[in-house]
């Protein structure tokens, strides 16, 4: 794995101290809705011993929500920031999750080893090449009958709010963040053969569900 980008890593190590407060201010009452929508979208209640990977897990809120819902699952949080992982470990009082440090574009896992791979509100912060690499890595590590769940911000419709939204995107992420969000499903359809879209009840976020095989191929794999 190449050397982790030290500049951005230092930034997120510091940002980890303010991250949860920032999310609370930004998301407000929709914070729990978004997380609940993502976790419940998995829809595989009957399957035992799930393996779940949360990429760019930050301070661990999403991966902990998965661990709470699926008590017997192996829930792994993956992030390149030691500061973020330290905060996640501090939250995990019951030791329900496994935390791994690494680069999203070079996942340190074998092929086809996770039932669910998710990434919540983080892809837009990666640079173009790293973002594409991360998507290919998600496809590599998810099982043939598994799913990749990407939660991203929905672009506001109100003109003034939209301008403020883009300003914030440019401040938080790389210069192509706005471009990525405007492309809709295109970046995902270039990599995954099966892509679908849904929205949270408030409409503040969108969920892109990706599968590495089509529906017919999944059924064939399960029968074998």
Tags for this model:
seven-stranded mixed sheet; 42% helix; 224 residues; Rossmann fold; disordered C terminus; 10 helices; single chain; alpha/beta
SSE inventory with pairings:
Elements: H1 6-15, H2 19-27, H3 31-40, E1 51-55, H4 61-69, E2 74-79, H5 82-91, E3 97-101, E4 114-120, H6 128-141, E5 142-153, H7 159-172, H8 177-182, H9 186-189, E6 194-199, E7 205-211, H10 215-223
Parallel strand pairs: 1-2, 1-4, 2-3, 4-5
Antiparallel strand pairs: 5-7, 6-7
How would you sum up this structure in a few lines?
The chain has a single domain, classed as Rossmann fold, CATH 3.40.50. Helix content is 42%, strand content 21%. The protein has helices spanning 6-15, 19-27, 31-40, 61-69, 82-91, 128-141, 159-172, 177-182, 186-189, 215-223, and strands at residues 51-55, 74-79, 97-101, 114-120, 142-153, 194-199, 205-211.
Biggest sheet details: 7 strands, mixed
Number of strands: 7
Give me the CATH superfamily: Vaccinia Virus protein VP39
Classify the beta-strand content into a percent band.
15-25%
Shape: globular
How many H/I helices?
10
Overall CATH class? Alpha Beta
Compute the CA-based radius of gyration: 17 Å
Termini separation: 35 Å
Tally of distinct domains: 1
Uncertain stretches of 5 or more adjacent residues: 219-224
- Physical arrangement of strands within the biggest beta sheet: 3-2-1-4-5-7-6
CATH topology: Rossmann fold
N-to-C SSE string, H for helix and E for strand: HHHEHEHEEHEHHHEEH
Can you give the helix content as a percent range? Answer: 40-55%
What do the pLDDT scores average to? 82
What class, by secondary structure content? Answer: alpha/beta
